[in-house]
Amino acid sequence: MKNNAPRPLVLSVLLAALGAAGAHAAEMPRIVEKDGRHALLVDGAPYLILGGQAHNSSNYPAALAKVWAALEDAHANTLEIPVAWEQVEPKEGSFDFSYVDTLVAEARKHDKRLVLLWFGTWKNTGAAYTPEWVKFDNARFPRMIDKDGKTSYCLSPFGDATLAADRKAFVALMEHIKRIDGDRKTVIMVQVENEVGTYGVARDYGKRAAAAFAQPVPAAVLAHQKPPAGRPARGSWREVYGDYADQYFHSWAIARYIEEIARAGRAVYDLPMFVNNALRDPLKDPAPPWNKDFASGGPTHDVLGIYRAAAPHIDFAGPDIYMPESKKVDAILRQFQTRGNPLMVPEMGNGASYARYVYQIVGKGAIGVAPFGIDYAAYSNYPLGAQATDRRMVEPFARIYGAFAPLQRQWARWAFEGRTYGVAEGDDRAAQAVEMTGWKATLTFREFQFGEREYLKDKSEYAPGTEQPSGGVAIAQVGPDEFVLVGQQIRVKFAGSGANAGKPSMFARVEEGRFDADGKWVMERNWNGDQTDYGLNLPATPTVLKVRLGTY
Ligand code: DGJ
Question: CATH says 424-551 is which class?
Answer without folding.
Answer: mainly beta
